[in-house]
Every structure is written in structure tokens, then in C-alpha cells.
Amino acid sequence: MLRSPSRFVRGWITAAMVGSVLVGCGSSSDEPTGDKAEPAARTDVTVEPIRAATELTDTNGAKISLKKEPERIVCLFALCDDILTELGIVPTATNSTLLAHPGFLGEEKARKVDVVPGGFIAPEVEAILSHKPDLVIGLGDTHGKLAPALKDATTFWAMQPETWEDSVGYLRDAAALTGRTAEGEKAEKNFRTKLAEAEKTPSDRTALIIYGSDENFGVATPEGDVTASLFPKIADYPWKSRGVEGSYSLEEILAQGVDVLFVETMSFGDADGKLSEKLAKNPLWSKIPAVRNGDVHEVNSEVWAKGRGTRSLGIVLDEATAALR
């Protein structure tokens, strides 16, 4: 059976497996057209200006107050790393491995960022405070318990993203607090433009994102999974959350005729091997159209499952739209 876990379990599974300034590098979608071809219609995307602030109510209603723009930021989950990279900031310390991805800092530069010991579930408070952070950013339902221990020494910001709109909101809030307003506006516009382009020509193929480390894997649904929230407007994505105890069976997935399958393999302890290879032992697996036709894509779980920010989601859109053609 496929489990459709609660948002806490999803947050735990997707991250339980890694201030100086960097120069951001963007990409342009303005490809030259041939002399005889008519220019393609441009997607006109505008974003609201971001105003710098030391106090704000964030996208989920939490009040954040700082004495000044933060210079030393510790990240306890990957969305923080994603946001800071978009703003041209390197975290003082992190417990995510997202920064090693070539779309972020790359392995060599990422090795220079200190790692918070204790793992995703229980990062060590003493180690966090040893970096003398101005701001610590964590996942609310996992790291909220750290707030009392951090209260008198630093500001703790608990984020709880469930959709891509939440992630954009947190990007804007972080841009305001760090004074990186132009960088925030640019990152938001780049992402929204890419999403709008994908939504203009949606695929009629049925897609599915699954995640896990063994046969007991989960289905990512748009209601509580940031990456999955992109899919309903770019593909046929008929997967809805069934709550904490809900589940999908392989028979149901087979009946939907999945054309393109994206697989996020998670690693825990001694677990190894690709999730798709483990599922190949089930006779129903080979009957899924995506499996039959060789359209199963093992994706980078650091980006697809954990990143959740506009840079990660931009990579997801690039890879997903290419696979869905």
C-alpha cells in the first residue's frame, strides 16, 4: 500500500537523509528567433515591489522582528538554503545538502559551509548558537520545539510551506528582512515567468510523484507538497490527499494509467539503491504505462523533495516539462 502521510511525516521523510555573499547567476529565456519566424508570444509577468523591513508578519501569519538586517543566518531545512541562494547569501551554517547541487553552490563551495550536527530532527542547540546567528530558520512542525532554547540568544523563524505560493511568500519576506529586495523581486519574477510558460502549454499526459526508501512509499499530493502543487496546471495530476491515514494502492495507480513517473529516493542509515529498482520486484509495477514505456525518472530528492524554494522549483519545472513532452 502507498502511504499518504501527514505533513509532519512528509517533512521528516524528505529531510532526514547537509554570512558570506555569493554572486547569483541567472539564465535568460530570450532565445533569438529566425529571420522568417514570427516572435513567440512573451509571457508578461509582473511582481509587486518588496520593501525592506525589520518587522513583518510572514506569509503564514507569524510575526518576525529583528533589530537590524541579519548577517549570520543558520538554516535548519533546505527551503532556507534555497531562499538565501536566491538572495545572494550563503548561510553561516546548515544541516541540508542542497547547497552541494550544481544549481546552487556546487560541492566545492558547499563544503566551506559549516554543518549543524544532530541531523534534521534534532539539531544541536549549542552548535547552532556557537555560530552567533542573527536569525535561525527552521521547519515549524519539526523545529518549533527549539524556539524556547533559542529565544534569548537569537531570533527563530519557523516556516511551514505547503504550496509553491507559500514558498514565494517566504522568499519575499526574507528579501524584506535582509534588505535584498531587488534580488527577491528578480527571483520571484524568474520563477513566475517559468511557471507561466509551462502553464501555457500543459501536457495531457498523466504524471505522478512518489517518494520513499522502500516498498512503503508515498504519493506527493498538491494539498501539502510544495513540488506537487506545481503539477495540476502543467499535467494531468489526479492525486488528492486522503489525510493522515489515507493511502493509494498500486492497483489504483495502475488504473490511472500513469504516463510519466517521477521517483524521489530517500536514504536512511544503511538504506541504499533506487526506489524504482526496489519496486520493480512487485509484478504490478511493470504494468504501469510509464514503467512499460521507460518513462520513469529518478530525480534528485534534495531538489524535488526538500528544496521547496523558487530555485529548486525552477529546476523541477525544467526537468518535469522536458519529461512531459
Automatic annotation (TrEMBL):
Entry keywords, A to Z: Signal, Transport
Main location as per UniProt: other
A Pfam family: Peripla_BP_2
PROSITE patterns: FE_B12_PBP, PROKAR_LIPOPROTEIN
UniProt record similarity statement: Belongs to the bacterial solute-binding protein 8 family.
Cross-referenced Gene3D superfamilies: Nitrogenase molybdenum iron protein domain
InterPro entries: ABC_transptr_periplasmic_BD, Bact_iron-sidero_bind
Species in which this protein is naturally found: Streptomyces ruber
Name of the protein in its database record: Iron siderophore-binding protein
All residue ranges annotated as the Fe/B12 periplasmic-binding domain in the record: 72-325
A GO cellular-component term linked to this record: outer membrane-bounded periplasmic space
Compartments where found: Cell envelope
GO biological process assignments: iron coordination entity transport
